[in-house]
Amino acid sequence: MKKILVIVLLIAAVGCRQESREILPANVLTEEAFVPVMTDMLLLEAVYKQRMTDDAGSADQLAEMYAFVFEKHSTNADQFKTTFAYWAERPEKMMRIYDKCLASLDQMEFPQTQEQTPVNTD
Fold it and tell me: Of 102, 100, 103, nearest to 46 (Cα)?
């Protein structure tokens, strides 16, 4: 009887674990794969907006920057749009993605592993 109970509990535990995994449509990036793409897109947008205020940004440059990000992450505009729309329909998960992107951007701005070199003022 104990063996049957253990087997039933194991099956239930495995079944619950598998159900918690979301099955994504074919053209949607996983959350883990989408975070680096989204992080680069946020950087790209910031750079482009800065250049626009300097009158150096153009739509052609923006398209080239998007193409670079898509190539870097082995994706394309259609997959990015589909993925963004998918996660946007799940606000809690999209917020988690944005939080991870912001953490990644903070790490880029303030790397904790890099030691500060003292400035010689002589």
Answer: 102
Q: What is the 3-state secondary structure (H, E, C) of 19-34?
A: HHCCCCCCCCCCHHHH
CA atoms of 33 and 29, how far apart (whole Å): 6
Strand, coil or helix: 12:
helix
Are the beta carbons of 43 and 80 closer than 8 angstroms?
A: no
User: Cβ distance 37 to 73 under 8 Å?
Assistant: yes
pLDDT, one tens digit per residue, over 21-41 is 679 999 999 999 999 999 999
Whole-model pTM?
A: 0.68
Rg (CA), the chain: 22
